[in-house]
Amino acid sequence: MPPPFLLTDWEPAYLGAWRSGALEEKAAAAREELRACRACPRDCGADRLAGQVAACRVGRQAVVASAFPHHGEEDCLRGQNGSGTIFFAGCNLRCAFCQNWDISQGTGGTECRPEDLAGLVLSLQDRGCHNINLVTPEHVAPQVVEALALAIPRGLRLPLVYNTGAYDGLTSLRLMDGLVDIYMPDFKFWEPATARRLARAGDYPARAREALVEMHRQVGVLRLGPDGLAHRGMLVRHLVMPGLGAETEAICAWLARALSPDTYLNLMAQYRPDHLVRSSPRYADLGHRPTAEEIAAAYRAARSAGLWRLDHRA
Question: Which residues pair with 226 in a beta bridge?
Fold first, then answer.
């Protein structure tokens, strides 16, 4: 009998949708969703099929800032050959501390039609990457579905990772149901006031909780293959920030209670003052890295909540 969390009989989730014909139906629904966009909780209603833009600043086509084998992700994603990472330009959040602000707050990059994005995905597979890692896909979920409908018949067979800030619309997540193998949300804030101040989205905590519950319903806890690489499930990230230890405690307690004590959690320690935090005195309280004690307290909070699958780098 295999040990817990070991997945020995695996194939990409999207193959079932492709064989049944559901993938084409999802692609058609995705295109229609762009007509009055409700892809994320902003509910802008922009006609992106006609090229209109709103909060995310991205219209009909997804914009790709970069794509490459990423060797800086979690060990269970990067392996030896790297995670095939696609960074999408634009974002539906306005995080004052964003370390990728030049990508997330702008639209610099290459517009990709569905066939272009499909080709990009397949090229990362050809380079030996262990998975396809879609970074900040919340606002381009419909375009991703369109591209998958083209890439899968051409031989895509890697796990699909949905690497999100968790400000996701339930409609988009249900479009992704049966397509995504690994959800990797970053649960950022617990308090609405903090989310409003730091990301201009006071409803972020509530929307993130809804999103994580839906992701967990779809894929469950993280399971690894015999090679030690992630194949199915959810990996949650949380950025430890100075002075926000109480929010970290609340998030850890909720993950264990509402999802599972077996939730795989990466407590990230790489916060640094950047973007608006670096230049504006209104964020002076965030103008330094978290202390070693704050990082240690985050791990204590996770363990106290009952979480035990905490990411450690080899």
Answer: none
Find residue 221's DSSP bridge partners: 234
The pTM score is: 0.96
Q: Helices 245-254 and 292-305, interaxial angle, to 10°?
A: 20
How far is 263 from 300, CA to CA, in rounded Å?
A: 16
Q: Quote the CA–CA distance of 180 and 178 in Å, as a whole number.
A: 6
Tens-digit pLDDT profile for residues 61-87: 999 999 999 999 999 999 999 999 999
The CATH number covering residue 41 comes to: 3.20.20.70
Cβ atoms of residues 84 and 132 within 8 Å = yes
Which residues span the domain enclosing 198? 14-305
Give 190's contacts (C-beta < 8 A, 6+ positions apart). Answer: 205, 246, 247, 250, 251, 254
- Phi and psi at residue 103, in whole multiples of 5°? -90, -50
Q: Is residue 59 situated within a structural domain?
A: yes
pLDDT at 1 (0 to 100): 46
Within 10 Å of residue 92's Cβ, how many Cβ atoms?
A: 25
* Total count of residues recorded for the chain: 314
CA distance 11 to 26: 20
Q: Which of 64, 40, 27, 32 is nearest to 151 (CA)?
A: 27
Does some domain include residue 9? no
Distance CA 20, CA 1 (A): 31
Q: What is the pLDDT of residue 238?
A: 98
Question: What are 147-200's pLDDT values in tens digits?
Answer: 999 999 999 999 999 999 999 999 999 999 999 999 999 999 999 999 999 999
Please list the residues that pair with 93 across neighbouring strands.
none
CA distance 274 to 100: 9
Is 313 within a domain? no
Write the single-letter amino acid at 142: P
Terminal alpha carbon distance of the chain: 27
- Segment 126-145, tens digit of pLDDT: 999 999 999 999 999 999 99
Q: Look at residue 106 in the predicted model and tell me its pLDDT.
A: 75
Over 80: is that where the pLDDT of 3 sits?
no
